[in-house]
Design brief:
The chain has 311 residues and is α/β, with parallel strands linked by helices. The protein has two domains: 215 residues, Spore Coat Polysaccharide Biosynthesis Protein SpsA, Chain A (Alpha-Beta Complex), CATH 3.90.550.10; 81 residues, no CATH class. It has ten helices and twelve strands. Strands 1, 2, 3, 4, 5, 6, 7, 9, 11 and 12 form a ten-stranded mixed beta sheet that branches. It has a two-stranded antiparallel ribbon with strand order 8-10.
Length: 311
């Protein structure tokens, strides 16, 4: 792993000595097309804010590194630090690398296929400073065409995840509808169970209380669900703030992987989540269905079946 950190101090930084308002952590993996627009939106929206950006690259081979280097030349005063991994270490592990180096009062986890909109950083910073009991927050997330993207969910149960593993969304719509928060009012600021990891704000106080993401348990998927659960268990709130808006294309990295590999990652993360937060019955239900889900994913990949998607 190659490390390129400019004047960064490792370890935890006390709020009494913080030099930054905001640290933004972006994990890339073959995102040459997306990372340029993402960084340019960050540089534009971060003007007037003491902000630093950590880009952690998971062994890209498509020109992502060159795009990052050329784009950072126009950062406009925003400090950009890069960490180059020689292989794909997973999302949670890469995020933790950036969070360990970060010095901001708040940390924003931002997907590389996401673009910020004018004023979104200032609005969320103002909200979080006025609500010190909030540990995690998410803003309104839009699709690339400007339509609303679902970004709030309830905590998973073994039963709604069983429906998802069996790809039976159409047969049990009421069960998954509750999990996916169908009918949620995305114009209303409110406390929620979890917010999507594409635009995921974390307070320094929360990091100091519960630590980083659980990279040992999660390669990708469920890491932000776990973090929201841990935040609530520690007495912090998780909130949705519609005044802070970002656009997210979605799936730019992991759509590159075949269905079977993604299902393996998903299953591993789901198993760890319920082993940490579920009952013995939850674990039995989920674990018993994991082989079935792999067989179904193989069929999806082999015969190009298109199950119903929730985005």
């Amino acid at each position: 792993m190659l490390h390129e950190i400019a004047s960064g101090q490792k370890g935890w930084i006390s709020l009494h000595f913080r030099p930054m308002d905001l640290s933004i952590v972006i994990v890339t993996w073959n995102n040459a097309k997306e990372i340029g627009p993402c960084l340019r939106s960050v540089f534009s929206c971060a003007q007037g804010i003491k902000c630093e950006v950590y880009v952690v690259d998971n062994g890209s081979s498509d020109g992502t590194k060159a795009t990052i280097e050329s784009t950072r030349n126009n950062a406009g005063g925003v400090g950009v630090k890069t960490i180059w991994n020689d292989k794909n270490t997973g999302f949670a592990a890469a995020v933790d690398q950036g969070m360990k180096e970060s010095r901001g009062e708040f940390v924003l986890l931002l997907n590389p296929d996401t673009e910020l909109t004018p004023g979104c950083l200032q609005k969320m910073l103002g909200y979080l400073r006025a609500h010190i009991d909030v540990g995690v927050a998410g803003g309104k997330v839009l699709n690339a065409d400007g339509s609303l993207q679902s970004s709030v969910r309830r905590f998973p149960t073994a039963w709604d995840q069983a429906v998802i593993l069996l790809k039976m969304h159409n047969f049990f719509p009421k069960i998954v509808a509750k999990y996916f928060c169908e009918g949620f009012d995305y114009e209303k600021e409110q406390e929620v169970d979890q917010v999507r990891g594409a635009y995921f704000w974390v307070s320094r106080k929360l990091i100091e209380k519960i630590g980083l993401l659980d990279a040992k348990s999660y390669f990708v998927w469920f890491e932000e669900v776990d973090y929201c659960r841990r935040a609530k268990d520690a007495g912090f709130k998780v909130t949705y703030v519609p005044s802070s808006v970002a656009k997210h294309a979605g799936g730019a990295s992991f759509n590159q992987e075949p269905s079977l590999q993604k299902q393996r990652w998903f299953n591993r993360s789901m198993r760890h989540y319920f082993m940490k937060h579920g009952t013995a019955l939850d674990v039995i239900v989920v674990v018993s269905l994991l082989p079935v889900s792999l067989a179904l994913s193989f069929a999806v990949q082999r015969f190009k079946i298109q199950p119903k998607k929730y985005v």
